[in-house]
From TrEMBL:
This is DUF4386 domain-containing protein. Keywords: Membrane, Transmembrane, Transmembrane helix. It comes from Micromonospora coriariae. The keyword ATP-binding does not apply. The chain crosses the membrane at residues 27-49, 69-93, 105-132, 152-169, 181-200, 206-226.
């Protein structure tokens, strides 16, 4: 009877903890996960995107006329806002998973990727707001190359994040097994597109047309899974 009473008290305490979770804490991962995808979709809508990683500075200067605001907005949304939201998702996911092997790797790689993205945002805004419209072809070309190579590096880091998530899906109760398969598919496509961007190979960079949608699904799903735990 004493054991039964203890178990009942534990269940009641867990129930109280779950129901007492602040509403904002429950909503935050959903907003961050969905917001990440919306930021990318909005950014790709305001300005055209291309996987051509070999554009010259002269071409960038010629194409910048009349598109400065749209290009700046795209960098802010896809590299700035998205970076902050990614950081929120990986921190909350790592906290929800708990002390499992790989949770620190997932959080750490996600934060590193977010940091790289913020650097890209700053460089991209400089490119779109000053170098290209100002006719500084050499600077524009150098900035464009740097942003692309950083994109490739970021994709490799994101691939490590996805693999860490795939490993956690086998050990953490809150992550379904299919989330692991999603992470594996994401990692493979990110490595392929990362090669294209890091080494400026436009053909390989075409893999971004697959890796980006998978990344949006992964981050949004991660936010929803954290919401389900109530942590």
């Amino acid at each position: 009877m004493a054991m039964l009473s203890s178990l009942t008290n534990l269940d009641a305490a867990a129930s109280r903890q779950s129901t007492s979770t602040p509403p904002r804490r429950r909503v935050a991962p959903v907003l961050a996960g969905v917001g990440y995808s919306l930021a990318w979709i909005a950014g790709l809508t305001v300005a055209s995107a291309s996987t051509d990683v070999t554009s010259t500075g002269a071409a960038l200067v010629a194409d910048s006329a009349g598109h400065e605001v749209a290009s700046i907005t795209q960098y802010v949304l896809t590299e700035g806002v998205a970076a902050v939201l990614l950081a929120v998702v990986v921190v909350l996911l790592g906290r929800a998973v708990g002390e499992h092997r790989g949770s620190r790797l997932l959080t750490g790689t996600g934060l590193v990727a977010a940091g790289i993205s913020l650097v890209q945002c700053a460089l991209g805004v400089t490119l779109a707001g000053w170098a290209a419209p100002g006719g500084h072809a050499d600077v524009a070309g150098a900035l464009f190359e740097t942003v692309n190579r950083l994109d490739g590096l970021k994709m490799f880091v994101l691939a490590a994040m996805a693999l860490a998530g795939a490993g956690l899906a086998r050990r953490a109760a809150i992550l379904p097994h299919w989330f692991g398969y999603l992470g594996l598919a994401l990692a493979v496509t990110l490595v392929a597109s990362g090669v294209g961007y890091l080494f400026l190979m436009s053909t390989a960079a075409l893999a971004a047309y697959v890796s980006l949608p998978l990344l949006l699904v992964w981050v949004t799903t991660a936010g929803l899974l954290v919401r389900r735990t109530g942590r």
